Amino acid sequence: MEKMKYDVVVVGGRVGGSTASLFASKKGLDVLIIEKNQEIGVPVQCAEATSSSTFKTLEMKPSSKYVCNEIKGADVYAPDGSHGHLEGGYAEGFILERKLFDKHLAIESAKAGTDILVKTTVKDLIRKKEGVRGVVAKHMDHTLEIEAELVIAADGIESQVAQMAGLNTRQTPHSLCSCAQYEMVGVSCDPHYLQFYFGQKIAPGGYVWVFPKGDGVANVGVGVRSDTTSAYSFLRKFTSQMNATPVELNIGGVPVHGPVDKTYTDGLMVVGDAAGQVEPFTGGGIHVTVLCARIAGEVAAEAIEKGKTSENFLKRYETRWKKEVGGDLKQSLKYRRIMDRLTDEEMNILAKFLKKQDLESISKMSMLGFVRDYPQFLKLLKEIL
Ligand SMILES: Cc1cc2nc3c(=O)[nH]c(=O)nc-3n(C[C@H](O)[C@H](O)[C@H](O)COP(=O)(O)OP(=O)(O)OC[C@H]3O[C@@H](n4cnc5c(N)ncnc54)[C@H](O)[C@@H]3O)c2cc1C
């Protein structure tokens, strides 16, 4: 058995792991990323849309090295085909090439001093009386015992690492949105606008998305609140009407139940999908993950500098990320719960109302008029406000 020693071991090398390690390494810590795949960033399980806040958090400029397209807004389609157009604001952003973006982050992290082991899987934790103190990992047929003051679990929705430390990060079929996506060639759509389609017949409990990557290439996907087999069959059905060819198929789950109850314990913090740090309404996780992972990397540096890695000290990680995004995630969960209850007919009514409004400044008067005409929305409205 080979033995190693680091300040911090980060499990998972994609967006969460690479961001946490980048900021911990920048603060001078000795950091190791362990990634079970042979290459960082693949296979992609993402529609690749993100907002400018991702780059702000990372202190990076969006670069054509890993950004394929700029997005100016979105077109939203209700079940009856009614169509709303969103310009700018929340709908603005970028389409990434995640394979290149995640790898770029890992490269930046390595340049800052992080060591990386690919094709290596964490199998167990080293536990001492003061808490987690490293990991046991398997690389090919070697077993590695890696001691560390702290472990950051960035191992995605199938996370085992935080559970090994006693945290309840388990996802259930009910807490996930199952997704299937083709990257397709020959998609005719406006290259700078996202498309969303709602309706029980095409995506029960979720939506269909068409996210343009430019040059007739787009991510076309379906998220549903049931199993992945049906996500794939809904995808097949939707794309059968398109004269486009798939070059890639991605299947995966998105945690849409809000963050897990506790994201730290003695010697360990959990970030990203593993911690449920995803907007439940949209399923967007990249911007939230980088923010929480940066905080985890910075808290790791403070903890190690002070020699305090108990849960008492690491609690500040959760306090900080909740202060930054906790409120937004709660609000997003409310929206998702409301969407879960809307019938197709109610979605059509809502779409017609929203179409007439300027989303940034919906007035109280127009809301009152709306609920007077459609009283069934009053209860839903109370839940949002
Ligand atoms: C179909 C789909 C579409 C999506 N679209 C969008 C979108 O358009 N915009 C957006 O913002 N978000 C989107 N998301 C969500 C987004 O992809 C995630 O929130 C984000 O990737 C989370 O990053 P992460 O680093 O926490 O986890 P992951 O990206 O899942 O990375 C976890 C890593 O840990 C590694 N790992 C796991 N276990 C071990 C182990 N034991 N040892 C070593 N390594 C391990 C895995 O190999 C993996 O590389 C989408 C998700 C899906 C499934």
Question: Would you kindly provide a brief summary of this structure?
Answer:
By secondary structure, this protein is α/β, with parallel strands linked by helices. Helices cover 34% and strands 30% of the residues.
Polypeptide structure, described:
Belongs to the geranylgeranyl reductase family. DGGGPL reductase subfamily. InterPro entries: DGGGPL_reductase, FAD/NAD-bd_sf, Geranylgeranyl_Rdtase_fam, Geranylgeranyl_reductase, GGR_cat. It holds the Pfam family FAD_oxidored. One of its GO terms (cellular component) is membrane. This is Digeranylgeranylglycerophospholipid reductase. With 385 residues, the chain is of the alpha/beta class. The protein has three domains: 2-48 and 97-171 and 259-337, FAD/NAD(P)-binding domain, CATH 3.50.50.60; 174-255, D-Amino Acid Oxidase, Chain A, domain 2; 342-384, no CATH class. Helices cover 34% and strands 30% of the residues. The chain is built from ten helices and 18 strands. It has helices spanning 15-26, 52-58, 98-111, 161-164, 228-239, 286-306, 311-341, 344-355, 364-373, 378-384; strands at residues 2-11, 31-34, 49-50, 67-71, 73-77, 83-87, 93-96, 115-117, 120-128, 131-139, 142-153, 176-185, 193-197, 207-214, 217-224, 245-255, 264-265, 268-270. Strands 1, 2, 8, 9, 10, 11, 17 and 18 form an eight-stranded mixed β-sheet that branches. A seven-stranded mixed β-sheet has the order 6-5-13-14-15-12-16. β9 and β10 form a beta hairpin. α1 (15-26) packs parallel to α6 (286-306), α2 (52-58) packs parallel to α6 (286-306) and α6 runs antiparallel to α7. The longest helix has 31 residues, at 311-341. It is globular. The model has no long low-confidence stretch (mean pLDDT 93). Bound molecules: flavin-adenine dinucleotide.
